[in-house]
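Folded chain entry —
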Amino acid sequence: MTIHEPVAEPLTSDAFPLRGRDGPLRLVIALATLITAMSLFIPFRTLDFHQINFLDYSWQLILHWAVANHMHFGRDLVFTYGPYGYIATDVYHPDTYLRLMLIRSAIVLAFVGTLWSIGVKLIANPFVLFAWLISIILTIGQSVDVLFLVVCVAFFAAYFCAFDGVFPARLIPLIPTLALLGLAKFTLVITGGVILGAIAIDQAARGRRVKSVAILLGYGISFGALWFLAGQRLGDLWPFIVNSLAISRGYSEAMAVNGPTGDIFDFLMGAIPLALVVAAAGWVNRRWWGALPAVAMSIILFLVFKEAFVRHDVSHAPRGGSLVLILAILLAPGLFHSLPEKARTIACVAVLMLAGMCASSILARNISMSVPRMCLRNAKVAATGLIDIVQVITGKDLARERYDGALDEMRTRAPLPSVTGPTDMYGYHQAFLIANHLDYSPRPVMQSYAAYTSSLASLDARRLLGVSAPSNLFLDFDNFGDGRFPTLSDNSSFPEILAGYEPGPSTMSTKYPLLVRRAAPRISTWTRFSVSTVKFGEILKIDAPENSLVWATIEVHPTLLWNVAALVYKPPVLWIDATTDDGMTHLYRLIASMARDGFILSPLVESSQDFLDLYKLDSAQSPRAGAVERIAITARDGAWNRPFFRPDIDIRLYRLEFKDR
């Protein structure tokens, strides 16, 4: 997708200067673009749990808290975000707010500068240039995830579209920017790697091998330097990469949510034509070497697809439509100048129209909004943001007051008892610990729903055994929202909790019961009483002794097709039907990678109080309610899902008992 034919004006660095007859107009365009971007992309007005759901607010606040308390990512904290993850949020913390504002400002300046470099090279008409710039910015809106990915792709567009395969000095600042974004959100390491890899290979193909190596080396040096600047240790870099990869690998199965099939069709309707036109432009200009940007763009679109539709909900799906439209707008000038004269207009208009239809359809289906309406809303937000900018500059910003007010309201909602010593909460409401000014001591995978692989769950369980184990634990069994079996999340931790902790004195005074660490942990014994192999849909009776705590390991055997599905999209969802002693059948998601290592199957634990009742099993005088008597593993789509699994399911049942030393 390189440019070899002349355009209406010479493509030089002075093709669109800020001087001459149109200088004032051009200056106004540059300033208007920059101010609009700043008002939308820099959090002059921070958010709290009133504007975003509490689950997201909780982990976002913890990212700020972790930086303020010098936590080490990769060991102390393992999540989808890294040591700069707080810059991917719009929440306030008094110790990180200034850094957040400065770093986001630098990213916005780099982004707008890159867009300006592309625009002045490829668009001669100042009004068209302004429309191009503003349409990109308003379509991005306030979505930080969308912004960061578009920043990466702007680097791609600048190199392959605007600078004809030349790597000018003005693109050098984008190398550390990509490294910074990768240390903010790990999936952007993959996106940045694809883009930098394509650029480095292209430079080598043009005979600039030294520059090719320098680009990759510059990224590595920037990554390491930013890691150290974040206060991280060299020895934690490898665990950070390994554990982040574990989170990425398990995401497709554990976090999958199904949504309207129409969204997938609409996305493909916009993405495939864009990829084909990029490939055509590359072929016209460089024949086989032109496949390089086409392959890179196809991979980027694939990553966008995974980002939007693995967890196919109203928070993620709209990003897919918006990103296809933004990428089409971003690449349109380069495609126009790269394609043959007879086809360029039709091809670019078709790509933009299809991308616009794709985005509008997905937005309408998920958030009842069209692209024009979304852009108008974002324009109003940008106008309001100007007031916020003035308030920050004049020292009248109320971010700290809003933050303190949010903490006060959280304390009112969840007045946790005052305890001494390191404290953690199992579940995802950890922000309550911060609000109650407790000595928060997070486990590595700080929110339980994210401990969805064997290695991740083991990290949390091992911490309960060491000297750094928290003195206090609060229990939070609020459903994560995807219907998974309640004791699957952080499954490996529960035996250690039952052995090493006991109900505290304030258990009945709060919605979130307190457990305190025992002076000496109890001894746990595992007695296997059943080994069975069943088919999908076959009922297995649980013949456990009365008032038994039953631990189950369920091994479903996926086929190669399952692995392919997990790679390119997401695997089919499995379910477990659990029938309790009251005759009720409960339907839950079964995440195979978590069930393989085992989980508490019976009694059924659906609330924090149910978990507390597990401590009373040995002394119960009558049968404990909620005992699971029968289970069946199903794939709801029936024959459609059979090729993804072998027919046999191995189930082992154990009686788990605890005795004092």
Summary: The two ends are 71 Å apart (CA to CA). Residues 32-385 form one domain. DSSP finds 21 helices and twelve strands in the chain. Confidence is low (pLDDT under 50) at residues 1-16.
